[in-house]
Amino acid sequence: MRKEWEEAHTVTEEIVEGPPSRRANATLTACPSGNYLWCIGGEFFSDDGKAYFYNDVYRYTPEKNEWRKFVSQTCPGPRSAHAVVASPAGGGKLFLFGGEFSSLYQNSFHHYRDFWCFDVSTHTWDRIDTKVRPTARSGCRMAMWKHYIFLFGGFYDPGIRTNYLNDLWYFDTQEYLWRQVEYREGDRRPSPRSGFSFLSTADGIVLHGGYCKEYAKGKRPVGVMLEDTWFLRIVLNTTDASGPPPPKSVKSSQHPFSLKWEKRKKVGYAPTLRSGCTMTVWGAKGLGVLFGGVTDEDTNEETLESVFHNDLYGYQLTEKGRWISLTLRKPKSKGKVAGGRKVKQVAAPVQFRPREERDEEDSDADYAEKDRNGEDEDEQKSKPSALKATPILEDPTFDPDDPILTVPRARYNAMLAVLRNTLYIYAGILEFGPREYTLDDFYALPLDKLDRFLCLKPCDVALPKDGDVLESSEDDDDDDDDEDEDGEDDADEDIGGSDDGRGEGEDTSENAKPRSKTKTSKIESEEEELEPEPEPEPEPEPDLREKARAFLGSANDAKASEARSAEDIISTPLPGETLAVFYARSREYWAGKAHGASDNRGKMLRRDGFALAQDRYAAYKPILGEVEKILAEAGLDEEEIRRGAAVGPSKGIGENRNRR
Fold first, then answer.
1. Mean pLDDT of 225-242
2. How far apart are alpha carbons 259 and 203 in whole angstroms?
3. What is the pTM of this model?
4. What is the DSSP string of 318-336?
5. Contact (CB, 8 A) for 279 and 199
6. Pick from 389, 424, 420: nearest CA to 404
7. Which side of the chain, N or C, has fewer Cβ within a 10 Å radius?
8. Among the residues of 143-291, which ranges form H helices?
9. What CA–CA distance (Å, rounded) separates 321 from 234?
10. Phi then psi dihedrals of residue 220, to 5 deg
11. CA 616 → CA 544, 570, 648, distances in Å?
């Protein structure tokens, strides 16, 4: 037995070149017993629609600028959006809980509820199995307070809708027991959420921000950015602290401490409303450090504008909390010319991205005009930010040595950690129109100096330049502007519902935000009108029923799903899915098909793509109708069938990965 255990826990160690491969929703954790950073897990979605999940462990040594990879046979499964917390006890431990996993083509998806401990000194993993433990989830957060690990929130997606959580658990690292905190009726507490910040202090834990979705009957889910701040005050019970520990069968009300949630007011120079921002603790100053994020704004029913951030804020964790802006300090020797007159300095980095229309139907000139018009309004609404777009390259007073130019590119879901007064920022996600990019750059900033960022590894991802128009929105739209308004209206109605929606991690290249109800209805009526008349002879019932059962089997069976190609999955309508919804999630695919088959561009190309989707939908309509009959016979009503179709294939992963 001893030999088997040793073989299972054998660890191989190797030096690797640079940071881990491109990935998002991994964890970057400061070592509790040394000057190291630990990076665990993560995910990467390739351009061909494949999902890669990792369970590797990397260690970074700042003094050597060296990355090492540790591999063990006994370890957690590949995952992302998990939670990791560090403990200095026993030479240093990293505790990991939950997360999610998707198969290569995103056909199967599941959440984890396993709990693991990584020994920093031996580099080995051990699984901790307890009868009572939190439910499976992703996007939760953990914080260490004394010898207790507190876990809050997250989300669970069973395939119909995303369920956000606000339950509170704690794990006693001495007793090795999980307990859930039961609230009394009327107790104040944070609302359900995921992707928030959870920072430990001497007197409790600070929670800030997060993301969730609001579900209204008959409407598309709406993403909600949260900016509230809460403090979980923890006070040890005197009797429990001095006397024996509570029995293992302790009831939920018999905790070794008292807990109370307190909502904090927004004081100081607070960040603007956003999601996907990341916070970490700067222990030497008792400060929480926040970087990045994205602000999604539904300007109207047809468009979604996004502003990406690369500003830096601090939050004083002690007392009642106060926000401060962490801006880089410019060298005193700079900024003067003959006669002592100060040269006007550029006060902000170049904004990462001009906002772009999601429906891709405006011309280049329209984009530029809308960006100019919207910028002044934003300046009136919000405080000056370190992110405002400024044309520094055209300014005659431009200083190439200005430290503001070293600030990392704007992004959200970046990985942050602080080691010995130095902030490290690794990777993150950004978007250009419908495209999403996972970054792989690595930066360091001395927080005690705030002089300039040091780029430890530049970004190797080929990104569009500022002002570039993406392929899906270019071509000859300029010719179709004001003089062709009627024609535009017709085109809009033909492809209604094609705007990309943005939720927590929605893959914007495949999920689309529907247009107004009238336009959706227009599509459905056109679909009915374009069906051949008279209707073709229906297939014999047994043959049709057999095809429907085969269709259900390939959609639900894991092995059969793995055998299906990504092209087959995206180009096949689902039971209960209308033509509008089907085209919305597969629009990019059909546009590519149309591009290869014709010389049309712009609106005509989108019309061609819609026609191809319409033909595909019509071919599958008899089978889908029979599938709906089978599901109805199984007890699902019409609304449940449509809700199931709305999630699309393996909705859990595509719907939630970006805002976690």
1. 83
2. 11
3. 0.65
4. STT--EEE--PPPPTTSSB
5. yes
6. 389
7. N
8. 238-242
9. 16
10. -70, 140
11. 17, 11, 17
